[in-house]
UniProtKB/TrEMBL annotation:
It comes from Marinactinospora rubrisoli. Keywords: Isomerase. InterPro entries: UDP_GlcNAc_Epimerase_2_dom, WecB-like. Belongs to the UDP-N-acetylglucosamine 2-epimerase family. The keyword rRNA-binding does not apply. One of its GO terms (molecular function) is UDP-N-acetylglucosamine 2-epimerase activity. Its EC number is 5.1.3.14. The keyword Phosphoprotein does not apply. PANTHER family: UDP-N-ACETYLGLUCOSAMINE 2-EPIMERASE. This is Non-hydrolyzing UDP-N-acetylglucosamine 2-epimerase. Residues 38-368 form the UDP-N-acetylglucosamine 2-epimerase domain.
Amino acid sequence: MASAPSRPAEAATAEVVHIVGARPNFVKAAPVVAALAERGVQQAVVHTGQHYDDRMSAVFFRELGLPRPDVDLGVGSGSHAEQTAALMVGLEREFIERSPGFVIVYGDVNSTLAAALVAAKLHIPVAHVEAGLRSFDMTMPEEVNRRVTDQLSDLCFATSPEAVGHLANEGVDVERVHLVGNPMIDTLLAHLDRFDVDALRSRLDLPGTYLTATLHRPANVDDPAIVARLVARLHEVADDVDIVMPVHPRGRAAFEAAGLGRHERVRLLEPLGYIDFVTLVRGAAAVVTDSGGVQEETTILGVPCLTLRPNTERPVTITHGTNRLVVDSELPGLVAKILAGDGLGGTSISDVPPLWDGQAGRRIAAVLASELV
Ligand code: UD1
Ligand code: UDP
């Protein structure tokens, strides 16, 4: 078997290559790609194909002004080892052919980890957008991916001050770390006037008051016993208020098998495109979720967010936002409070997190441009 060559430094091109593969990557990459384009930087978008359904992938390119991927590796689904191995093989070929000047990776998905590993071994510099987040829960695949990616990255772009602290604690050289704000919030603010709740309400025939739910973490959706318990709890909540839930493909079969849609006030939808989904969140009385990005978006939209997890890598959404960690037994009581106008009771809602101002993409582009000269 051939041994993979490392790249001599002089072979590097000026091209910046973005690695995207899963739904949240697209939302984070859009403002970075746009800001680098403003500066005239040569760039390419490599889609790994980790997510591939139109509603998990292509819709974001159509809606967010992202350029069509220059290549789609078509890796698809599999076990962690199968998927990560296929990602690495495809990315290695691509990187050797392109010889990029920088590889940019986003968030904490398997595509992110695979790209960072391959680039590091080829001696291609890596920039990690959304570095330093920590749940301190190594049972989450994302926590493994984040920790390794940060160690391999030459530039770590952090969304919050505590992320900078985590990187420092892990011995990451401060010179590599830049607090830049949150590109996912850049995207939200850039499209704010497209989130028209009244139009969505009439198009989807939404009730006047409703909750939005979205769940996809393995800890919530992979074990049928846990799914059955969550379904019973959501049905209890739905006795009092309608629930609208765009269902992530990971949990669809389990939620259907457990009869989630059998309650007359639970409405299950296909995953929504970004504009419809954020509009659905904006119009909701509250959100029940385990999504990372949704904890951040609700913080800016001021919508109460009940996060069905024992921890969060985004504590800034609790201290500076509307987020609260909950167990399922708390849901009926908390939802009743919110519907009664009592907010989340005890959670103080202060200013939005620092630098979540719509300019993160430009800050990232400025740092990268200075590295590329
Ligand atoms: C992945 C990320 C997770 C992120 C989530 C965002 C990892 C380890 N996990 O989880 O951090 O929060 O994306 O949504 O990278 N599937 C489809 N169609 C698709 C994509 C997936 O049907 O377009 C189904 C397949 O059955 C697949 C399953 O969803 O096996 C899981 O997909 P995968 O990409 O492995 O992980 P996610 O749970 O989506
Ligand atoms: N999202 C979407 N449609 C949906 C559910 C989520 O467009 O049906 C968006 C959401 O607004 C956020 C991103 O997808 O911008 C978050 O992705 P996800 O929850 O899949 O991943 P996580 O953030 O948990 O990694």
